[in-house]
Amino acid sequence: MHGPVLSGWLVVTLCGVTAAYCLMRMRSCSGEARTAAGGEALMGLGMAVMAAPAAVFALPEWGWVVYAAVFGAAALRALRPAHLAGHHLHHAVGSLAMVYMAVAMTTGGGVHAGHAAAGVPLLTGALLAYYAVYVLRSGVRLVPVASPAGGAVTVAWGARPELAPACRLAMGLAMLAMLLAL
Predict the structure, then answer these.
(1) Among residues 38, 52, 118, 127, which one has the least CA distance to residue 83?
(2) Under a CB-based contact definition with an 8 Å cutoff, are residues 39 and 78 in contact?
(3) Which pTM does this prediction carry?
(4) CA distances from 65 to 21, 69, 105, 173 (A)
């Protein structure tokens, strides 16, 4: 990611912590929730590595090809007919956005290498619009609503229902930052 080194490290930290939480969440849930948490953990780890400042960590040229292959496979998995609803579609868009950024970094000389703009402006703009709407929609969903009266319930960190949407919001914001740096 080009731009200020501090913003790169902030994105790395945000995505790394989010990925770690998603891995914890995988242990606390099963079925579709576990699959979603695994996809989010993969996305968070991938975004953390991609956002690392080039002065500290630069992937070799073949590294971007591996990125494109891993996230291409993740997109294909999310696009299976049984998964084309709801959050799986978002996972497919996110994985395809990661493929797009990896290909743009490979073909454009790499944002890390030459600090030149890469990618197709129309596609970048469409992804920016998608993630801007996603972030705004996710942020509104985090606004607390009145809960039914009852005693306090102790929940394990991996099963806290309010943290999963907060992590999705954080990764959406990080994706916006990465697309802006593209």
Answers:
(1) 38
(2) yes
(3) 0.80
(4) 27, 6, 10, 25
